[in-house]
Amino acid sequence: MSRHLKFVKNLSWISVGQFSSKVLVFLLLPLYTTYLSTTDYGIFDIILTITLLISPILTLQMTEPVVRFSLEKNSNPIQILAVALFVLIIGSTILILIFPAVRMFIDVEDLYYWFFVFFVLRNLHMLLNQFLKGTNQIKLYAVLGIVSTLITIILNIVFLVVFNMKLNGFLLANILGHFLIILTIFVLAIKNIKGLLNSVIFFNKDLLVRMSQYSIPMIPNALSWWVINASDKIILTFILGPAVVGVYAVGYKLPSILSIIMGMIMSAWYIASVEDFGSDGNRKLFSDTINLILSCNLVIASLIVFFIKNIAELLFQKGFYEAWTVVPILILGYLFFSLAVFLESIYTSSYSTKKLFLSTVSAATLNLLLNFLLIPFFSTIGAALATSLSFIILFVLRYLGSKKIYSFYIPMSRFIISIGIVTLLIIATYISDFVVIRVVLFLFVFCWNLLHIYKNYYVQSLVFGRKEI
Question: I want to staple 142 with a disulfide (CB 3.0 to 4.6 A). Which of 16, 246, 385, 394 is the partner?
Fold first, then answer.
């Protein structure tokens, strides 16, 4: 099986598993914005934000080596998973000890216990998902993604609509969703549970050292991602309160469509990128893939920006409608974000994880500075601007750095022109009188990049069969 076809096959299965769960976020937005107040949604987003902050530190970012080491020939995935579980147990114990510090952000005592359970189950679920991918149980991963989606939908309807439990119901639905899937994975994918428990207790110390040497340099990278993606919400909370964060978090969901797509692609790409890294075939696969990503994201971005007010009327209820104002600015940033994330695979495949975080730390530092400068004056718009500018700098730094490691091709002239047109479309979106100009700009960037999707190697080969793969 060729590289292109194998990548598409893995992507298809992973997309089934991830898309069903990720699309849940958008399907349930009308439900959330109807049955949750802006404050409730803001509090949950703060819990999620803090979880994302402390997880890389307390788990030593073990999700990364679980899949990377399991893909190696003659590896022992059970021992690899056992080491990661041991680290999670230690990290969860430390979280109990730092309870007073966490309460600075979650000052309601009952919510701290919700937060602790959410932290443990979410990270355990992530480790087990990585185990499934690392052991090539892609079909099971896909099926469980669908099951997880159905369970979460049912639980949210029961706790929010039927019992009207508000924030507690929202938290309970998320926690039970993780718990039920974790049980299923243990039953279906890990047949020797006793052996796994023994491996956790008597873990392989040499393997722990190897996995830590790979994962620890990625902790600053993960923390920098947190600064870029989440620090704005913390600063908004302290300056303007959780209600504003709730509105901003809802607006953040639409641009994250591009992040969701990239997450699905990267899950499959991570497996493909390590095979024959540096070979001519691998380089061609990389260039074909990143060019298709560029074209698809520009098409999706132009659609979201052009129809943003219609989408907001459909998805956002009550006091959440104004969230649309941050979406176009964030969309621009996420165009750069998607390419920067894809370039990250060059660093991980070449074991250059120590170099990886330099670009992210630089972008994170800029983001933090811009948040403090812009949010007091421009509120959520300032937060969106800070995020987008940081993503632009991140892409530039990673593009220049990755070129020194790996040779690939991006059509920069088309990218720059398309970005310029999307920027004009965004500006016109805020001016109600520019309807005709908006239509012209949208049609140009949409049709131009749709044409390049049609011409892409993947489409010509796999759809029309005009080249042998």
Answer: 16
